TrEMBL record:
This is Glutathione S-transferase. It comes from Falsiroseomonas algicola. It comes from the Bacteria. PROSITE patterns: GST_CTER, GST_NTER. InterPro entries: Glutathione-S-Trfase_C-like, Glutathione-S-Trfase_C_sf, Glutathione_S-Trfase, Glutathione_S-Trfase_N, GST_C, Thioredoxin-like_sf.
Length: 201
């Protein structure tokens, strides 16, 4: 059984849980526990961390790719280089551009962190977040289905969770019809309903 370290409320831990649900991997999850023990597994001291017969691995998107490849799930992560790159491009965009945009607004409006209380920075973060969500909306309008095309992939796991975070944050948002239709498609998947929806009816 796969050992997964990290609290279930973490968006990055939920990437792993949803991936495992799609593949059918049994998981033994535990919270982060003692800081020194976690740092011994991941020098960054962050979750998620997994451990299997091959050893320890960290970085959430890398873990998702590893699990899909290990279990031969080329539907989630294609073997062909170009098709795989299309999936990984959107996964990397989620981890870099999109995550960087929402940090200020999310930390202020959801986490209520005092270091992120500046109104101007909150507004700038919200604008940047909405701008990037419009990019995703355009991509989804082009595919008419999932992020890279007609089929569900790992890109939809990481971006589906990001869409959920955007919808659950109390701020002004543009109407994005392709994103709204995308959420409806994701809601048909048991893994999203269990680990991704996070309160969306």
């Amino acid at each position: 059984m796969l050992r997964l370290i990290g609290q279930a409320s973490s968006i990055n831990v939920r990437k792993i849980l949803w991936t495992c649900a799609e593949i059918g991997i049994p998981v033994a999850r535990e919270d982060r526990g003692e800081a020194a023990a976690l740092r011994a597994l991941n020098p960054n001291g962050l979750v998620p961390v997994i451990e299997d017969e091959a050893g320890v691995l960290w970085e959430s998107n890398t873990i998702c790719r590893y699990l899909a490849a290990k279990h031969g799930r080329t539907d989630l992560l294609p073997a062909a280089p170009r098709a795989r790159a299309e999936v990984e491009r959107w996964m990397d965009w989620q981890a870099t551009d999109l995550n960087a945009s929402w940090r200020g607004a999310f930390m202020a409006l959801v986490r209520r962190h005092p270091d992120h209380a500046d109104a101007g920075r909150i507004a700038a973060s919200a604008r940047a977040w909405n701008d990037l969500m419009e990019i995703l909306d355009g991509q989804l309008a082009r595919t008419g289905a999932f992020v890279v095309g007609e089929s569900f992939t790992l890109a939809d796991i990481v971006l589906g969770l990001s869409v959920n975070r955007w919808l659950m944050t109390l701020m002004d948002r543009p109407a994005l019809p392709a994103v709204a239709a995308y959420v409806t498609r994701l809601a048909a998947r048991p893994g999203f309903r269990e680990y991704g929806a996070n309160g969306i009816p």
